[in-house]
Amino acid sequence: MTSQQLSIVSSLSELPERWRSEIQAQLSQGENVVSALEVDLDQQLHFSKGVVMITPRRVLARAPGAAQWESWPFTQDLALKHHDHAGVGHLELVNARGRLAAWRFTLGQNLAAIRLVEQFEAQRDSHASGEPVMLDEENVCPSCKAPLEPDQEECPICTKVVYTPPSTWTLFRLWRFAKPYKGQLGLGFALMLLSTGAHMIPPYLTIPLMDNVLIPYQNGKQVDPMLVVMYMSGLVGAAVLAWIFGWAKTYVLALASERIGADLRTTTYEHLLQLSLEYFGGKRTGDLMSRIGSESDRICVFLSLHLLDFLSDCLMIVMTGVILFSIDPWLAIFTLLPLPFIAWMIHIVRDRLRTGFEKIDRVWGEVTNVLADTIPGIRVVKAFAQEAREATRFRTANKHNLAVNDKLNKVWSLFSPTVSFLTELGLLVIWVFGIYQVSKGHITVGILSSFIAYSSRFYGRLDSMSRIVSVTQKSASAAKRIFDILDHVSSVPEPVNPVKLDKVEGNITLREVGFRYGNRAVNRGIDLEIKAGQMVGLVGHSGSGKSTLVNLICRFYDVAEGAIMLDGVDIRAFRVADYRRNIGLVLQEPFLFFGTIAENLAYGKPDATREEIIAAARAAHAHEFILRLPQGYDSMVGERGQGLSGGERQRISIARALLIDPKILILDEATASVDSETEKEIQRALDNLVQGRTTIAIAHRLSTLQKADRLVVLDRGVVVEDGPHEELMEQKGAYYRLYQAQARNVDIDLDDGIKE
Q1: Are residues 28 and 57 in the same domain?
Q2: Buried-state track 120-158, b at ≥16 Cβ within 10 A, e below 16
Q3: pLDDT tens digits for 377-408?
């Protein structure tokens, strides 16, 4: 078998079985598939399956939701473009006339997409030259079959990371949040124009003051006092107007920018809450806190202060330039002589600042991640006497942050003084050329004085604008990190036309359910029927897929294959919130929020009455210990339930589930972390909880599941046994070995039997 054939087999074998017969029907005689990609999003970013393939002759595809196949033969101008943004991959097929087709996919398919593009380019070039693509078996990547150079150790495809640097244009996306306040922003801009205009009056008045008052008076001529009063009144009036307009525009724009910042934080946080657990699994808490907190605050400061200054500077520079040219064009040209050099420097430095500030943001995220890890886990840190180790981690992260800032400051420390030097040089040029013009009688001393005053303001504003470059790039970096959250598409999407969920019976059906973490299959081909009101226990060794199956039923993740049905309807057809309101979840490590006992009990039902809260606590056998607390139900609970024992936290968690009266109950190792006496107390509470509910329970202690109607034994992601406890014990199969091993406290493998 040739290398090319190996690549063909590999690409087809990665596709689900259902595609293969359809693909074979589309291929011509002697035509093979070189590379294939299953796309999983339609153009509206709803989950739907499609496929894109490369053959030696053409591109062949069926778009998600489409009934017909399409194909495009290779031509020299045919190109396949690939990029990704915020969790969504994009493929575009284009030629000289424009775009021919486009496909979307989640980034779990990104490696296959990169491989597809590589094969497209190879086959297109091969088709143009007439020479077949030949791969050397000894120089191909074992993962993606991409060709490698003789001395190349790493695959350029597998190690490729798509990175988009922050762009200043990202800031324009903030208009989405500014649009509701466009009236206030328009008023602020009008006030800014008036304020800037008022600031332009005093330098202009220096011309008559010098030519009509000071110079004649110095030469011994009589000066009209009323003329002096008029000019002085003009200066005072301009200063007062500039102050009034400046105060008003600052106040109005500050109010608007604060509201924009508040909306940005709220929208980002609300969107973050809608994302699936898959997103949070790849993120650090400190990094997300930094984005919503400090990054949004940085944008707010930029909008309320620095953007205001930038716009004011732009207006001042434009108005000053117009006035200078109206007074004396030649002197104005010499005044603006250093401007191109300053603009060139700003352009060069901006790119370095842009990438540098994003690196600083990422490094600062490392610092906050250490804090987010250590402070919540301080008990573990102290228990293992690792204070010095954590201090070293923080010191290392802080040192890295310092090094990155020092590197950026080298650029900034050279840039800022250089701009100041060029502005001083510009003023020197004005003096030299202005004195020459005065000596020739082309301009008066008053005009020169006015030019000096205007030029000082012009270059002062230009220097200020150059400093704003730093702030702008920081804000662009912050905006990019926030929009990375806002642009992320949840892997558990809401249905386009949701099915109304009124009355839930509790019948759960799993049909050929499969799920993968990345490239690792966790559950495969699971068929399971759970009747309403039935209690089913999930058993199996660690890593057998029990918790993953529960997560799929809760729809924390969506199945990769098959479907999960509730009362005969695919759970993906319901609104996520409507579906989860019918599920009560009791975890092995119950999470309690900082607040009172009553607030924690009523977390799932905030409008619950005190009588309902107490009734749920009684049913969960929690009422007695709650009354022993100093303030009873109003006693404060520390962060993550500090101050309560593990059993007490668990009973509060059970009462919390009872209060919402769910039709489906999930118990995930609810008694695994407590002693035998506490387990009995919790078990009595659970007996009240499971009555009349469809219950799915996970427990390592198999004795706690003997009351279950059925036991489902999982091994390596598949169901190996299913039935009541007594029946499974009689079969002496996987469950029997697991039960006997636990009773004798030995490890087992469900396939091989007991290993003592």
Answers
A1: yes
A2: bebbbebbeeeeebebeeeebbeebbbbbeeeeeebebe
A3: 776 777 778 888 888 888 888 888 888 888 77
Name which residue leads in pLDDT, 464 or 263. Answer: 263
Structural domain includes residue 727: yes
Last residue of a domain, one of 70, 105, 133: 133
Residues 51, 175: one domain?
Answer: no
SS (H, E, C) 271-332: HHHHCCHHHHHCCCHHHHHHHHHHHHHHHHHHHHHHHHHHHHHHHHHHHHHHHHHHHCHHHH
Range of the domain at 338: 169-487
What's the domain count of the chain? 3
Picking from 56, 62, 72, the residue whose alpha carbon sits closest to that of residue 18 is 62
User: pTM for the complete prediction?
Assistant: 0.56
pLDDT on residue 678: 61
The reply to whether 609 falls in a domain is no
Opening angle at CA 604, ends 602 and 608, nearest 5: 40
Q: Tell me: do 280 and 331 sit in the same domain.
A: yes
Q: Is 567 helix (H, G, I), strand (E, B) or coil?
A: coil
Would residue 518 count as lying in a domain? yes
- Residue 457 vs residues 61, 152, 196, 460: alpha-carbon distances, Å: 62, 58, 11, 5
51 in any annotated domain: yes
**454 touches 462 (CB < 8 A):** no
Q: How far is CA 16 from the centre of its chain?
A: 30
Instruction: Kindly state whether residues 341 and 238 are assigned to the same domain.
Output: yes
Same domain, 311 and 440: yes
- Angle, alpha carbons 634-640-644 (nearest 5°): 60
Measured distance CA(388)–CA(19) in Å, rounded: 57
When pLDDT is cut at 50, 70 and 90, the band that residue 353 belongs to is: low
- Cα–Cα distance, 50 to 103 (Å, whole number): 9
DSSP 672-707: TTS-HHHHHHHHHHHHHHHTTSEEEEE-SSGGGGTT
pLDDT tens, residue by residue, 235-287: 888 889 988 988 888 888 888 888 888 888 888 888 888 887 777 766 666 67
